[in-house]
Amino acid sequence: MRFSTLCEAWLGISGTSKRLEKTRILADLLDKTPDRDLNGVMLLLRGRVYPEWDKTQIGMSEKLATKAIALATGAPEAEIVKRFKKEGDLGIVAAGLVGRKSQATLSREDLMIADVIRDVRKLSTIEGTGSVDTKLKTVAKLLGNATPTEARFLIRIILEDLRIGIADGTVRDSIVWHALARHEKLRYDAKAGEWNGGAERVGEWTAAIQQALDRSNDAAKTAMTAREHGLRGLAKVELTIGVPTKVMLAQRATDLADAFARVGKPAALEFKYDGFRLQIHRRGKEVTLFTRRLENVTDQFPDVVQVIREHVKEDCILDAEAVGIDPKTGRHVPFQLVSQRIRRKYDIAQFAKELPVEVHVFDILMVSDGAVYARGWRDRRKLLERIVPNVSRRLKPSDLLITDDEAKAQQYYEKALKAGYEGLMFKALDAPYRPGSRVGFMVKLKPTLDTIDCAVVGAEWGEGKRSGWLTSFTLAVVDEDGELVEIGKVGTGLKESENEDGAVTFQEMTDLLKPLVTHEAGKGVAVRPKVVLEVKCEEIQKSPSYSSGFALRFPRVVRVRSDRRVQEASTIADVLDLFGAQKGKKTQK
Fold first, then answer.
1. Fewer Cβ atoms within 10 Å of its own Cβ: the N or the C terminal residue of the chain?
2. Is 85 an active-site residue?
């Protein structure tokens, strides 16, 4: 399959803000994709040549990409740098220069999907003497055979910066449309705004494909299974040890009575830790750790790898929280300090001694190659307690109280808060684990108006003593279609200098956001949504000023949520729940 076919789809997606149109474009692309290229197309859709959970990096900087463009087009590097400063996108610069050169070039070979993936992956393996020249020649060869449009997207892929927002829900729905057309002969009529019959089948296929995506974390595998084996095949897609799955998420409860009403009585109550969520995969002596963002952080937690390897004797997938421990006092430390372990690249073993973690395991998804997440919580807890021992200050099953007594629950809640925990988790005793879902049979209870996790989509440069820093941040939450909608701006809660409490600094935010800037206008900048902030506010108000329809009153940054993907930011449904709760009445929907 030609790479140009994918590039045409990207151009179409870039030119529309309508989700249904994006879905149609992707579904049409899948219809055109042969079996041999489906895996590659599904990877490249997000601008990647490796799965999202694979930590392999291509290793091309903007400086190297500039040199490669110069080598391929004959343009002086100074000219490329000048154009880059103006456009802010090396892909657009490459497209212009390749277009200029192609007018004088008589022949070129068609770029194929497989060729692009093979050669871009090769960049991550080139090392040693002469590696820079080899990388430059590899990229220059690709650009030499590229059309201007292909060059635009090639450079973005190489820099791992596609700059096209394709929501998870849009990818899912494109697979649904593709499968419905193939198996049910159903197609969506955009003009009529409806399916050409059999609309009741859409929900069944959507649920099956979403479930397969959540379990496998593999869009290519899901798309191929849907294409070849239909609903029966999708039902058989399972978790794989070593491949992260999306974690189950909790809904919010307003008080003890609400928590029990949602999950039923009796319920399992656990402390809500202020830690770092870890998904632990063990097969033999091999232990792999993933965050809820699906990032591989095995290297950053050698202490966790060791304790799992020594004390957990069965192959399994565990859901847990890594809580920082002060080695002198034994008390838990704030999340901000634990999150530093994720960014650490050097002296990791020493840092692990200075800031050890205690792993609290609260669920099990798989054991000895058998999936157990569909079993009730009681059964899963028995399995967990059988294979996870209590190792002082290193590893333990999560603290637990099973009760139907609200007075006892209140005492346990107060005990959690006194110990410095965030609150409680309530779980239904017979409910399954649902990967990727925010379920009603697991809820969280905290003592104050809950914080909101917001994606940063814009910012402003500061003035005066804050000149050179980004100081005001535009926030967004996720709407029903999986798209980001703005909900306010925040500029308070950050510090001008680092201190021991781990508070977010303006310099830290600037360092995080500066590489993500896509456009500047005066003091304002637009940024690619990659950073999630936990924000606290005095009140949520209805407001026509922001696309969400709401605004945060007196928002304040609590911390950077380095463990959150943008797709896991708070949703409009969360905002509605909080808006209704603060008024002391049920949300009107």
1. C
2. no
